[in-house]
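Dear Dr. K.,

Following up on our conversation at the group meeting, I've run the structure prediction for Cyclin-like f-box protein from Cladorrhinum samala. I'm pasting the input sequence below exactly as I used it, so you can double-check it against your construct before we proceed with anything downstream. Let me know if the numbering doesn't match what you have in your notebook.
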Amino acid sequence: MSTTRFPFSFLSSLLLLLSLLVLFNPVDAQQRNRNGRTRNGGNRNTQQSTPQQQAASVPQGISTATDGSTILDSTVQLNGVPLRFKISAPSSQFTTLTDVPGSSAEPNSTGELGVNVLLHGDGGQSFFDFPNQAVQGNQLGVALLAPSTNLLWGQRTGPAPGLDRADGAADALLVRDFVKDVLPQLVAFDASNVFFTGVSGGALLLSGFFMPVHLSEFAAEGNTNTGVLLMCGAMPPQVGGGGDSFPAANARVHYQSTTDELQLLQGSIPDAIRAFEELALAQGLSEAEVGRLQTVDNSPQGGHCEFDGQGFVSGIQLVADDFAAIMLEGGDGEVNGIGNVLTPVVGNEALRF
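The predicted structure tokens came back this morning:
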């Protein structure tokens, strides 16, 4: 990939926030109710523009993260599609190609921070909320926006497809290529310490298409400094020979759901749990080893992604705030308001909804 300069003008956090509130009102597509209204009261029949068009009206640029880090919001042309991204990191860690004020890193240089890459749910809400923006557990935050009409991962055109993600393989490759080829040009990070977070439809993309084929490229022999946090969504491998290349011994996986999960996910999440557990056992891991690396919790009393029992956005933020406790080595698994979520999958595959 050729080296490209990324010029950006400064946009204040206030302007970005106002733009989000006024111009964009995405909702996870699987949460629409029968009368055509979204959970936040918007009427889908009055929407004149597509979610992709609404997203395009939200300005890109540079702003400040909740922890004082710098957020870079821009778009790169990759694999024939425009891929919008956000990166949150200390300004000094951005490369000189970005023109971020205070940037000093050289392209393709190694930094001290790892990476947590987030894929939003159907509709794009979590991309704009950017719940993983603060540096946590020595991980800088990245979020990617699905390059599709309705902001669906694994479905470039058409309405929300449920579990049918016809473009899943192409989107999984897009995620892989961004992290491997584009991200090193923009920010210095530790390429041996890369994790992924999926929300709803993003979790389907990661479990069904990314984990079975591409996660092994981020795994290092002898440690577990890669992994995937699957929030309110998961399904068994859909590609890659059933997931034979899944790096079971070197990756953490956590499934986080609720007691009142969406009906179609009440079947697919347990199916995914069993599938990845079986892959690990087939690779020679003991049940104890599988239970340490693969964990699950659906104890929160709430609906889809409502981990705090109150709302979609606040629930996701709650779990994102404890990413390090859940996913990183030495984490105690304690999530504020939920308790310990690190229940081994072995013997707990059949979740109670």
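Two things stood out to me. The chain has one domain: 13-29+47-344. The CA atoms of residues 76 and 83 lie 5 Å apart.

Best regards,
J.T.
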